[in-house]
Amino acid sequence: MAKVKRAARPRPTGAVNVDDGRRRCKWAATDSMLAAYHDREWGAPIRTDSGHLERMALEVFQCGLSWKIVLVKRDALRDRFDGFDVQRVARFDKRRIERLCNDAAIIRNRAKIEATVSNARVFLELAEQHGSYVKWLKGLDASTPRAIAALYPLFRTTFKFMGPETTKCYLMGMGKIAAAHDKGCWRA
């Protein structure tokens, strides 16, 4: 009788976090700070305009860098950007931007700093037209792949430093579209 070859057991692709044994997406399994962000924030709805400005700014600052760097500098970014208070950030002038560009505690990329200030101003414009940025965002359709695809050029033309990949990560990160998790991740 021929030996029947058993199918290999499928292995989850998410890595195991050594601290608690939970399977997580590979990007979040190597560090406790990344794991905490993944477990508590990634894909969770944001309910305030300042929360959205912070998340968008983090995505902008992350471009070309690792999430670990952004999360390490997050408290300093919050402090220097006045808690991401939309009205305050929108009023940042050239002197304030210059100070930020010389502040070693944060990511000192002028284009990203200026984009965050510009985006705060856009948040105010949208809030004036729709009652709040959150209300504007809720009005955007993300129910189909075609509707989601239409959001990428909208964000690219409305905001600074928000290309398709950054927009996709922002929309996933704040729960507007389903967050992608590795197979086997406890949040998948």
Biggest sheet record: 2 strands, antiparallel
Read across the widest sheet, the strand sequence of neighbours is 1-2
Q: Uncertain regions: pLDDT < 50 for 5+ in a row?
A: 4-12
State the order of secondary-structure elements, H for helix, E for strand. EEHHHHHHHHHH
State mean pLDDT (0 to 100 scale).
92
Assign the CATH topology of the domain at 46-173.
Endonuclease III, domain 1
Specify the number of helices.
10
The radius of gyration is: 19 Å
Helix and strand composition category: mainly alpha
| First-residue to last-residue Cα separation | 41 Å
Our estimate of the beta-strand percent is: under 5%
Oligomer designation: single chain
| Shape, per Cα inertia axes | globular
The residue fraction in helices comes out at 40-55%
CATH superfamily of the domain at 46-173: Hypothetical protein, domain 2
Query: What would you say the CATH architecture of the domain at 46-173 is?
Result: Orthogonal Bundle
How many extended strands?
2
Q: Please report the first level of CATH classification, the CATH class of the domain at 46-173.
A: Mainly Alpha
Question: Could you please describe the fold and organization of this structure?
Answer:
The protein has 188 residues and is mainly alpha-helical. The chain is built from ten helices and two strands, in the order E-E-H-H-H-H-H-H-H-H-H-H. It has a two-stranded antiparallel sheet. Strand 1 and strand 2 form a beta hairpin. The longest helix is centred in the middle third of the chain and has 21 residues. The chain is globular. The protein starts with 14 loop residues before the first strand and ends in a 15-residue tail after the last helix.
